[in-house]
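cache lookup: miss for this entity combination. No prior model stored, computing from scratch. Input as submitted by user K.M.:
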Amino acid sequence: MRTPIIAGNWKMHKTVNEAVQYIETIQSNQLPQDVEAVICAPFLTLHTLQDKLAGSSIGLGAQNAHWEKEGAYTGEVSVHMLQDLGVGYVILGHSERRTYFAETCEQVNKKTIAALNAGIIPIVCVGETIQERESGRTFEVVSSQVKKALKGIASNELHKVVLAYEPVWAIGTGRASSANDAEEVIAYIRKTLMSEFGTAVAEQIRIQYGGSVKPENIATYMAEPNIDGALVGGAALDPESFSGLVKAASRVGGQA
Ligand SMILES: O=C[C@H](O)COP(=O)(O)O
């Protein structure tokens, strides 16, 4: 059985002080232990949060990383640096990075391989634009993104990857995909994984849905057989809301 994973992506939000207050609130909320809860925070807050979360079951993630260990890459932070800090997760290939920073599938692949080599769990994002959906290309686009991101990864490493299906049109718009539609695409992604890497690995890889997920709608996604959690932006910015999301994803104590 795949462990549900709820990851909060703070994007470019929160100072160090705000981040600390947030963590103190979720730590006082007694999150369920059968859900992997992860906070993906801005680089500047990671060092402080790593100390704050020491010994806690809440995971800490970054939102991007460079694949090279070090070098003349002004403004970049390497996977190696995250590993040194003890960061456990990294979001890769988010549509905002693909759109605003021209990140390519080839770069996402290099970053994914580097993260796995460093023992960091990559949360690899894929998803179609509204134009791609309306022209009937959703399956083609997401399966191509998945295949390119995972190209060349050793089969004994693949199961560690987390995929996040995030239709671009649903991100930050309040226009969430219905659970049925998200399940249809995610089931197709799992089918793609089966044909590329075999059933055993495909059954192990966790696939999240992302795009306007809130405490009020998360149960509908968690009820779907192929959806293993959520990658949440806006609704993860408030610690009570994030706690509510994690609780609702619990199979033991959830309100589904
Ligand atoms: O990484 C998170 C996604 O971009 C979803 O953002 P959202 O929950 O604000 O729609």
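stored under new cache key. Residues 9, 94, 166, 171-172, 210-213, 231-235 surround glyceraldehyde-3-phosphate (CB under 6 Å).
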